[in-house]
Amino acid sequence: MSYGKIVTAMVTPFDGQLRINWDETGRLVDYLIAEQGTDSIVVSGTTGESPTLTDEEKLELFRFVVKRAAGRCKIIAGTGSNNTAHSIHLTREAEKCGVDAALLVAPYYNKPDQEGLYRHFKAIAEKTSLPIMLYNIPGRSIVQIHTETILRLAEIENIVAIKECGPLDHIAELYGKAPEHFLIYSGDDSALLPVLSIGGVGIVSVASHVIGRRMRVMIEAFFAGDYTKAAKLHAELLPIFKGLFVTPSPGPVKAALKLHGIEAGEVRLPLVMPNEDKLRQIAALFHRP
Fold this sequence. Notes:
By secondary structure, the protein is an alpha/beta fold. It has helices at residues 22-34, 55-69, 84-96, 114-126, 138-141, 147-154, 168-177, 192-197, 208-223, 227-243, 251-259, 276-285, and strands at 6-9, 40-43, 74-78, 101-105, 132-136, 159-164, 183-186, 202-205.
């Protein structure tokens, strides 16, 4: 399973009543593929506001995006949670919707130990034929999937990749020990170039909603061996990487999408949109008044 270099963790567009805006969702899928060069799309990840989407909404999104993409890119369903049985159910239902893979976040809040993490992911993998991308994000889930646990999981045939937001030394160690087929993606736009330098193959990105093409130029420069160009491009893009998290995501990137002609609407509570001062900061990133 190849997810490409640029995987966009897609926002979920809402209308004025905070219902899914299907027209804008379709426009967004087309825009990400045609205008931003997205290789794969994550549907109902954290950036898609998965905590406040119902299962029915998630499944409808999976079906809709698969149909709209029509094979132009891979579709990865965010089906992880801190409830193993529920994750199994949602992953199996997502598979019926025609998605290409599943993204499984480390269970949050209930703080499983390493054996619990291993058994959680193993149990889900055994109940689906979908390729699985693990998601290690200790800043949100509190727990970190240790290198040894990831290596155990990488022995399972359909666990093929990881989205990493762990420390760089952990990622470097993982790359040095992981099987060749196991793919490491940065889960943090700001860490993209450092992660590439220690074995990463690409990015699961928020910023690629609006600067995907520019990010690809940087990635291609790195893999072509032009490290100076890649470093300069990374430095140029860093203010945008950081600016899209000036308030909790995905409010800032929804505001940025509006500047680019995509009406993604607002965010559902408990999240809120950036205030006027923050909106001006976001607009300035793209030289907009």
